[in-house]
């Protein structure tokens, strides 16, 4: 069972796996597949690094990088969709997962920044 503390990290892993599984089914588009696999897996990698941040500023920076990678993943996802490489249902599901992760990242960044100002 997932606890709130690890929900974002686990969601990012599930998302990266879903993207990787999707890419396994796509023929061609190797550059796009490489890019979306890199950006989607980087979300979780940066969250993992944030656990061992050297400072509050470093922690926030890692979360902000994860947020940027989430945005980049959305770009590649839309590109694959608009090339008719993935169907609308798959696109919508993955967009929803990505949006959920992004909202949690934004909330975490906002909280971390607020806590920094209070210290």
Q: Radius of gyration from the CA trace? A: 15 Å
CATH topology name, in short, is de novo design (two linked rop proteins)
Strand content: under 5%
The CATH class: Mainly Alpha
Word description of this protein:
The protein is built from 4 helices and no strands. With 119 residues, it is mostly helical. It has one domain: 23S rRNA-intervening sequence (de novo design (two linked rop proteins)), CATH 1.20.1440. The N and C termini lie far apart (33 Å).
Please specify the SSE layout and strand pairing.
Elements: H1 4-25, H2 30-50, H3 56-82, H4 88-118
Helix pairs in contact: 1-2, 1-4, 2-3, 3-4
Which keywords apply here?
119 residues; mainly alpha; de novo design (two linked rop proteins)
What would a concise description of this structure say?
It contains four helices and no strands. The protein is mostly helical.
């Amino acid at each position: 069972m997932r606890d709130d503390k690890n929900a974002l990290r686990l969601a990012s892993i599930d998302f990266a796996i879903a993207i990787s599984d999707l890419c396994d089914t796509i023929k061609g588009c190797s550059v796009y597949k490489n890019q979306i696999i890199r950006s989607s897996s980087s979300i979780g990698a940066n969250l993992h690094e944030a656990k061992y941040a050297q400072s509050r500023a470093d922690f926030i920076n890692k979360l902000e990088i994860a947020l940027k990678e989430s945005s980049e993943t959305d770009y590649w996802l839309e590109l694959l969709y608009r090339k008719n490489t993935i169907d609308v249902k798959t696109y919508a599901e993955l967009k929803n997962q990505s949006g959920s992760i992004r909202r949690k990242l934004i909330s975490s960044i906002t909280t971390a920044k607020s806590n920094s100002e209070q210290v």
